[in-house]
Amino acid sequence: MREVVIAGAVRTAVGKRNGGLAAVHPADLSAYVLQALAARTGLDPAVVDDVIWGCVSQVGDQSSNIGRYSVLAAGWPESIPGTTVNRACGSSQQALDFAAQAVMSGQQDVVVAGGVESMSRVPLGAAKGDGAPYGPKALARYDGFVFNQGIGAELIAQKWGFDRTRVDEYSALSHERAAAAQDAGAFADQIVAVETEAGVVNQDEGIRRGTTVEKLANLKPAFQEDGVIHAGNSSQISDGAAALVLTTPEKARELGLTPLARYVGGAVAGSDPVLMLTGPIPATEKVLKKTGLSIGDIGAFEVNEAFAPVPLAWLAETGADPALTNPLGGAIALGHPLGGSGAVLMTRLIHHLRDNGIRYGLQTMCEGGGTANATVIELIS
C-alpha cells in the first residue's frame, strides 16, 4: 500500500453557541477552510479527487450533502465531487480515515477531508425529530435502556470511581491549558479568520478564564439529581469547521505541496452502547497494535473531552501520561462542533507536533452509539 501524508491542515476558530459564527451558514463556514487550505498550501483545487466531509445533524442548513455544497460555496471547480459522512462525533476523523484509505489504495491521489457543524443553526438532536432511531430490537437487546450520552458519562464516573471534585479538577485544567495555549499563540497559524457582519472571528470563544473547582461546584448536575456531570465538565455546544489535504509523498512533490505529517494508521472500534463513551480505550489498543507502536512511543494525545470522565477513564486504562494528553485543553474549554471536531483536533495535533518537535501523535474520539476512532500520525521534519 502507498504511503499517505497530510500536506495541509486549517480550521476556523470554534465559536460558542449563538456566538461569533452563529450567523454563518455551515456551507459558507466550510468554504472558508477550503479556500484557506488551497491558499496556504498552494493546492490547485482542480487536482482534488474528492472532498469527504463530516457532519452529524444532516437536516436544515446541513442537509442534502453539505460536503458537496461546501465545495461549491468555496468556488472550487464544479467537477470536484463531495460527500458527507456521519460517524457521530467522530465524523470528520472518519472522513480523514476514509481519505487516507482512498489514497493508500491507489484509487485516488489527492483527497480533502474535514467537517463542519453549526450547532447554533442546527441544534443538537435536530436530526432525530420525533423519531426513535434506535428501534425496538436494539432497545430490547439492552432491556429498554434509552441510550443517552450524559447517563453514559455518569456510569463511567461510577465505574472508575471519579467523584465530583475529580471531574471538576479535570475541567478546570482544560480551561487553564486552553487559555495558556491561546495566550502563547499556539492556535494562531492554524486558524482561518472568518468575516461576519459583527466582525472578524479568529479566536476560540469557549475558554472561561479563571475557572476553578469552587466555581464549578455551584453548577447543578444535568442528568442525575445526585450525579457529577454538569455543563461545566461537559463539552460545549459549538460552531466550527476544519479541512486537511491528504496525498502521497510523490504526488506532494509533483504538486509543490509540503507534507506536514505521515498518516501511520487508523482504527475504529465498537464498545458497550450503554456506557457509550468508552470506545477510545479499545480503539487506542487497536491502532497501537496495528501500527506496532506502544503507548510510550506517543508524544501527544488528543482525546476528545465529550465529558470529563471520558479522558479520565482512558488515562486510567491506557497508562498514558496525563501531561501529554490534551496539553492545549480540549472540548470542555475549546468546544465541540460535532461533525467538525475530528478535523479540528487533528489540525491542533499536527500543529502541536510541529511546534514542539514531537514525533508521534494519537487522536481518539468517543462517539454516539458506542463506537470510537483512533488515528496515529508521525511528524515529517
UniProtKB/TrEMBL annotation:
EC number: 2.3.1.-
Top EC group: transferase
InterPro entries: Thiolase (IPR002155), Thiolase-like (IPR016039), Thiolase_C (IPR020617), Thiolase_CS (IPR020613), Thiolase_N (IPR020616)
Gene3D superfamilies: 3.40.47.10
GO molecular function, one term: acyltransferase activity
Keyword Acyltransferase attached: yes
Pfam annotation, one family: Thiolase_C
SUPFAM superfamilies noted in UniProt: Thiolase-like
Domain of life: Bacteria
Domain Thiolase N-terminal: 4-248
Thiolase C-terminal domain location: 257-378
Keywords from the named record: Acyltransferase, Transferase
Family: Belongs to the thiolase-like superfamily. Thiolase family.
Cross-referenced NCBIfam families: AcCoA-C-Actrans
Protein name, per record: Thiolase family protein
